[in-house]
Amino acid sequence: MVLDRLQRPLRDLRVSVTDRCNFRCVYCMPREVFGPDYAFLGRDELLTYEEIARVVRILVGLGVEKVRITGGEPLVRRDLDKLVGALRGIEGLKDLTLTTNGSLLRAQARRLAAAGLKRVTVSLDSLDDAVFRAMNDAGVGVATVLDGIAAAREAGLWPIKVNAVVKRGMNDHTVVDLARYFRGTGIIVRFIEFMDVGATNGWRLEHVVTGREIVEAISREFPLEPAEANYRGEVAKRWRYVDGAGEIGVITSISQPFCGDCTRLRLSPEGELFTCLFGTRGHDLRGLLRSGASDGEIEAFVAGLWRGREDRYSELRTAETAGLPKVEMSHIGG
Q1: Is residue 85 very low, low, confident or very high in pLDDT (cuts 50, 70, 90)?
Q2: What digits encode the pLDDT tens for the residues 87-105?
Q3: DSSP string, 130-193
Q4: CATH number, domain containing residue 34
Q5: Beta bridge partners of 208
Q6: Which domain holds residue 279?
Q7: Do the domain assignments include residue 2?
């Protein structure tokens, strides 16, 4: 086990396999920035699946137990099931999951499950079709994502979680509808405060709907009570329905930061390591991978990086730091 300067262990690795996405969500990848002329990474710049699997195997030796495949939209990268199969075979890796916008799940869910993927998290910001289309800005309707969720369930990808980013004045009035729809289904909806990730999403504090507001709105119709965390470092605060119909989660990076228990390292598509979601720069791992470095040298590099880590951006956030140029969420995932 390797610990950072705040005594946080390395337990979770988020692997972004592409910076591309078929959505243009306003809080992540606004079309006015990521338009037809935007220069995405070339194929030779991306880590290969073999390189990713090698990194994961080495990092499991440093304590990583859980890997989440992200993007961009990971399902736009070809043959993702091959990466899933390679990662599933790594001894000591306890959990392998995927975050997706769900639009391509109907076509790929069975292949992913057959390769060894166990569960998925699907982004769905509203059940109101007009609101959802405005937020994803790609002409994709709610029915497509719901069908993707159904396909995942049919393939045995379970449990399923649904993520909803809540932005004031855009979809906050539909929060209770989401809770109502998935209540009693076994699917957990996690409501996420609109965050100042990257520098292109026009984040402003007044656009943030706090976790407390979300819980209060839902609890007025379906009474909630707090539930204990499943494990140290769990991102979402758990709330269960008093009548036993399941639970929701709220992710409160703005109003109630949880940096003290952050155990996550992020690997970008081109092989940079980020020790914080709000990082301003990455650390080049691809250069080591492609220069003949041994597993031991790569392990020492990552261990040294983690031991020097003291990130706690959300606890120290100010109006000034919120405006700093930071890595985009579409580049390293959530």
Answers
A1: very high
A2: 999 999 999 999 999 999 9
A3: HHHHHHH-SS--HHHHHHHHHHHHHTT--SEEEEEEEBTTTTGGGHHHHHHHHTTSSPEEEEEE
A4: 3.20.20.70
A5: 167
A6: 12-332
A7: no
